[in-house]
Structures are given as C-alpha cells and as structure tokens.
Amino acid sequence: MKTEDLIAAMAADSRTEPPPGALLWPMLAGALAVAVLVVWATLGFRPDLLQSLADPISVMRFVLTAAVGGLGVRLALALSRPEGRSLTRLWPLVVPLGAALGLLLWTYLSTPAEGRQMALVGKTMTTCLVMIPLLSVLPVAAILFALHRGATTSPALAGFAAGLGGSGLAAMAYAMHCIEDSPLFYVTWYGLAMTGVTVAATLIGSRVLRW
C-alpha cells in the first residue's frame, strides 16, 4: 500500500459519526411538523383552539403529553450511550403519570354520576385511538433511527423510551384537533393509545437495536 493510500485510510477511520442527538433533533422536528400538518389537513384544528388554551383543564392535554414525550426523548438519548443504562432514572416519569391519574380521579369524583359515561366515551374515541398511533409512526421511527446509530446496551428499554417519546409528541399534535376537554376522556384514551405504541416500540427496539 502506498503511503498516500495508508494516510487516506487512517483519516477515513478517524472520522467520527455524529452523535445520536445531532441526528435526532432535526429528524424529530420534521416528524412533529408532519404530524401537525397531517392533523390540520385530515382532521382540522378545533375551531376554538385558542380559546381552549384559556382553560387549565384543556391545556393539561398539551402539558401532560409534552411532558411524557420530552421525558421519553431524554431517556432515549441517555440510553443511546453504552453507559446509559447505569445513568438512567425512570422516576421522573412518575410526575406526569401521577398528575394524570390525580386529574382523572379528581374529574371522576367531581363529575355527576349521570355525566361520567358521556365524559369518558366522548364523541371521538375511535378517532383518538386510530390517529395517535398513526401520528406516532414518524416520531418513533426517528428516535429508533437515532438510537440505532448509537450504542445502546438496553435495546428493549431504549425501544420503550422511543415509544414514550414518539407517542407523547404525536398525542400533543392530535390534541390540536381534539374537542374533548374532560380528563376522563383524554387521560384514558390518549393513555391507552400511547401505551399501545410504547409496547409496540419496545418489542421493535428489542430486535432492531441489538448490537
């Protein structure tokens, strides 16, 4: 091998891959933008979206889903490193989950018995259960792709984080359309849809993120 070829080969080997975070953020921003556009183009934003933001109970749809999504992405980035499992803490997830359950219980107790079923079922249950998983596809795929470029030693847990992050962000995008303001509805059905996505992503991650 010529000296010039050897130097070129050594230089190529010394090039470092961009960290998973450098790949993830632009991909995730694009995936979230697509999710919002899909909601706008297929379902439309709720007519009173701006007015609904003045209602703290309605705003919690965005707060809770954004919190779960953000914590999922943070967890995924930590798990993208070989030492990430030892540094990972799951307890921050207790905060939004506890807040959601507390809000659910408070709403159940404060809603008249005759109105609970309507508040729970709402008018858009099926749309919610279908759209959130569909909107999750790109965000979850973006997170899994970034994780695949990393070196996770916990593929199933990393897939779990990808599912949480992607489904949380997708649910936040869907909330721009949703007209159901009762926590009995959105905690239950958003939560169920996000759980399904997270289970699927955990199974996928356990396979595709193995070394």
Care to describe what's here?
It is globular, with a radius of gyration of 20 Å. Helices cover about 80% and strands about 0% of the residues. The longest helix has 26 residues. Helix 2 packs antiparallel against helix 8, helix 4 packs antiparallel against helix 9 and helix 6 packs antiparallel against helix 10. The protein is built from 10 helices and no strands. The chain is mostly helical.
**Rg for CA atoms:** 20 Å
Task: State the helix count.
Answer: 10
Q: Give the helices and strands as they follow along the chain.
A: HHHHHHHHHH
Mean pLDDT: 89
The 3D shape can be described as: globular
| Share of helix, binned | over 70%
pLDDT under 50 segments (min length 5)?
Answer: 6-15
- The tally of strands reads 0
How much of the sequence is in beta strands?
under 5%
Quickly give the structural class.
mainly alpha
For the termini, the CA-CA separation is 32 Å
Question: What's the arrangement of secondary structure elements?
Answer:
Elements: H1 3-14, H2 20-43, H3 49-52, H4 56-79, H5 84-87, H6 94-110, H7 113-121, H8 125-148, H9 155-174, H10 183-208
Helix pairs in contact: 2-8, 2-9, 4-6, 4-9, 6-10, 7-10, 8-9, 8-10, 9-10
